[in-house]
Protein 1
Amino acid sequence: MVSEEEQIVAFLFKRSGKEEMSISEAHLTLSMDLNWFSPDDAKKFIQNVIEKKLLQKKAEVVSPSFEIGKINIPLGFKPSINIDRRELTKEITAENNLVFEEIIEKIKDLGEENEEDILKRINQVKKEKKTNIEVAAAYVAMENNIDLNELFNKIEKTIFTKNKE
């Protein structure tokens, strides 16, 4: 079965009509042209698919390591939020992830949105406000009038821990 990462890579190269492209061109296409990822998340995605050997890297140029012509790209293809979430949470430590998950659960408890929509809103706020994921999640929660007083110390600790790294 074809992974979503393979579909994204195939789409990227089929769209460009090129067999190889610079890493910066790949980042810019995923973030600015397609608006699928923030610039940082696009860089993480490219690094991730290089590590998974879906892209071959030579100097600052990448090319698919598989036959992109054999990959079926559905009409209107756009990556699912699962890719975004995995990349967004990849760098978060277990404790940080718990704070993020707690905030998401509080928003989900309202019963107005499913997790995918909540994550899309959080990612949108993260991009628009140019902030980290925990602050964006807290912002979305507060927009929904959710009391986060008991989590503020954890959120603060998480933010300052990440900023020291």
Protein 2
Amino acid sequence: MSRDLTPLRNVLSLLKDNFATVDDQAVPETIRKEIIDIISNCRRVLEELDELLQRHNGGLSQALRWATTGSQDAAKLRWNLDAYRGTLHLALELLKQYVYIQDHCLE
């Protein structure tokens, strides 16, 4: 599971770096701040998921704990991650529309 989340972690890092340094005129401050907040929330959930996986790594007792509580905790974190990912998708779509309007309608 951790290996499957690595590409998402990498993309979030690239997005955060790009939005932290983007010109204010190119992207409205409110949209930029919202996107950075969503990215931070996604990264926090990924960290929590990594910690959960580490706590349940190895040994029979950890496997039993994973079966009883760990998998449920992971499902909650994945649900949170999916919600943030959906919100991030909407924010990026809004940004795409904003850029289109700026480039094609307000000339």
Protein 3
Amino acid sequence: MPAGFLPEPEFRRVQSLVPILCVDVLLRGDDGRCLLIRRRDRRGGEGWNIVGGRVHKDESLAAAVGRHVRETLGPEVVLSGFDAARPDRVAAYRHAERDDGPFDPDQHAVSLNYVIGCSGQPEARGEALEFGWFAPGGLPEADEFGFNQGEVVSALLEPYSSS
């Protein structure tokens, strides 16, 4: 078992007791379009999502961002400089499904959200069934997002709406 990992039963117990730290990344191309992935949730549903997931024990935030991008979109994606200590937003994902914000059926999660420029050739891997590029004005409908992430994406794009 890799360092920083708990056996599944122990992790599920921790997950049921405390919030889990995550990083989520809204990738933007040079043309301003956003990259979203389509993925399944543990209940079998599918939706558009931003790239991300848990931060491992002793893993830096920058390393967690890089790992999730590589695992989901491949090693050819190059991230533009970003400051991992300065997330663009923080989102709390409640454990219970709800209509007024993001949720995660597996856990209560606190996610540091980043908008990061990227280049290279993405390839859908790992949890990504596919990926798509979306103009900020042409995002999927709210009910097409997984985990109510449409609200997170809209909030992350708000500072760019006048550009």
Protein 4
Amino acid sequence: MAMYIPVVATDVGGTSEAIVDGQTGILVPPAQPELLASAIEKLINNMELAKSLVIAARQRVEKYFSVDSFVSHYAEVFDELVPPK
């Protein structure tokens, strides 16, 4: 996502926290190789879709997964845990 590459992934673990299906990538159920191949083929055959997913994915990375957002999030957590003096 951060490298402007369209993402097709299986919906396991925390994948759906990073990828919004149909908006920032394509999620398929696990253990469904036919659906995975179909989703990849869909992006190969529809460059406009691939381009729109890439743009939205990069924006999501910058908003939620950048170093600055992680630092900001951790600062908020510490502010909640440590009361002001």
